[in-house]
Amino acid sequence: MTTLNFPDDFWWGAATSGPQTEGRFKKTHANIFDYEFEIKPEQYWHGIGPDTASNFYNDYKNDIALMKAAGLNSVRTSIQWTRLIDDLENVTVNPDGVRFYNAVIDEFLAQGIRPVLNLHHFDVPVELIHQYGGWASKHVVDLFVKFAEKCFELFSDRVTDWFTHNEPMVVVEGGYLYQFHYPDVVDGKKAVQVAYNLQLASSKVIAAFRRLNKNPNGKVGVILNLTPNYPATKSAADLAAAHFADLWQNRLFMDASVKGEFPEELVEILIKDEVLWESTPDELAIIRENTIDYLGVNFYHPNRAQAPKYSSDSLAVDWLPNKYFEAYDKRGVRMNIDKGWEIYPKALYDIAKNIQENYGNIAWFVSENGMGVSREERYYDSETNQIKDDYRIQFIKEHLYYVHKVIAEGSNCFGYHLWTPIDCFSWRNSYRNRYGLISVDIRRQIKTLKKSAYFFKDLADTSRLELHESEMEK
Ligand code: BGP
Questions:
Q1: Ligand 1 centre from 378 Cα, in Å?
Q2: Which of 177, 261, 381, 439 makes the best surface tag, with the fewest CB within 10 Å?
Q3: What integer best gives the mean pLDDT of the chain?
Q4: Entry's Gene3D superfamilies (predicted)?
């Protein structure tokens, strides 16, 4: 048995988002999920949409008390643009939205929990897609900046920790390449513009934060889903594929957010392929001058890449980034079979080393990590009235082993947030995979601490983790 000690002021917390918890109650606008559920409810697991979610809008006090009971000292959620703003063009605020987010922030603070607020968690107002083409439009970028300005004016007196986007690459992939989020477009050139516009939005919001933030301790960052792209083999073709995947999936947002510029090599490829984004010198200056204070890293599973089997240099195929790489499913690896994701904790170490060595050792935290499991009621234990989620505890421990190791080697990591405090709505998967420390019976809205919540409370209270040999070096 080994004992690992973490820093005293470490963020022990969990992350969620507005659209996945609040429910649609009293919202003036529909985000893409609200809308899609109206028109295609069958796309959602068991026909369950975001309209009630985990009822955080009504039940936030009870939920925050449960988060406290699970030991969380910091919690990330997001402000829904579709709740806070009434008139999206003229940016007037909705009084009930302001009341609600004030009440949530004050309740977190009253419970001694640090509220961490994100501004965009995939939940663009659907009418901005219908009117302007969503993130493909720079007008939408500017409307988002105005929404962010309102957030800073209203809440930055009490909230010190802000993030511009959650996983912008998922917006690009889900909405414009691989059809897992509305508007389900497949258009590589548009995807490139959307990626650029999301970065521009993040940088402009950071500029606004520098002007409007009311709190001397205030900081702003972005949350990126990063993973090494491990090549399938050491062949030159696979190495080149993994290299491009890294440029596209990781370095595009990472370099622009931390260093203020896009990777030159990626820009050259996009120019050669005639799909580069439209930008202006003024915009590029904004990106250069408004880099992040700190970084959130979401990590669930590693990516592996191989050379594409078929060349898409054919005239019949429009440009897609997959011209250069294809996902590689390695055999014989550990899997979370419910979600279909590989479990490989060491990747978190590799991510951290990359941040340490290539990004000036910028301050960062694990902003999401977690294990989604289906039919979790299988693990219900009537004696303790708990879901005995030992697999989740194991998953957390194995990842924390590497977080500890890399901190000991000088990495500037200041926290670990699990996805998620309370089981929440997960887009088209709805409530299929449960990730929470706290379970929710979605019909009766009864919430109960799982075994992992008690484990997490002990961890947060002591900043100490006991590990067996078998839980290390996975
Ligand atoms: C991340 C998102 C979260 C959450 C999580 C779990 O990509 O930031 O919003 O959904 O993944 O994944 P899933 O919901 O697909 O199971």
A1: 22
A2: 381
A3: 97
A4: Glycosidases
The average pLDDT across 138-167 equals: 98
* Residue 225 Cα: closest atom of ligand 1: 7
Q: How far apart are CA 368 and CA 443, in angstroms?
A: 27
Q: For residue range 232-278, list pLDDT tens digits in order.
A: 999 999 999 999 999 999 999 999 999 999 999 999 999 999 999 99
pTM as predicted? 0.97
For residue 77, report the distance from its CA to the centre of ligand 1, in Å: 13
57-65 long-range Cβ contacts below 8 angstroms, 24+ apart: 57/22, 57/23, 57/25, 57/26, 57/100, 58/23, 58/25, 59/445, 59/447, 60/103, 60/104, 60/107, 61/107, 62/447, 63/21, 63/421, 63/422, 63/447, 64/104, 64/107, 64/108, 64/111, 64/113, 65/111
**Among the atoms of ligand 1, which is closest to the Cα of residue 16?**
9
**pLDDT of res. 308:** 93
- Please work out whether the CB of residue 170 comes within 6 Å of at least one atom of ligand 1: yes
The DSSP output letter for 58 is: H
The answer, yes or no, to whether residue 310 has pLDDT greater than 90, is no
Q: Which CATH number, 2.140.10.10, 1.10.245.10, 3.20.20.80, 3.40.50.1580, labels domain 2-471?
A: 3.20.20.80
CA of 471 to the centre of ligand 1 (A): 25
- Please tell me which residue in 22, 36, 167, 398 is annotated as part of the active site: 167
Domain residues of the chain, as ranges? 2-471
Is 265 labeled as catalytic in the residue annotation? no
Q: Is 167 a catalytic residue?
A: yes
Element (H, E) at 367: strand 364-368
Does ligand 1 come within 6 angstroms of the Cβ of 166?
A: yes
- Could you read off the pLDDT of 193-203 as tens digits, one per residue? 999 999 999 99
Rg (C-alpha) for the chain, rounded Å, is 21
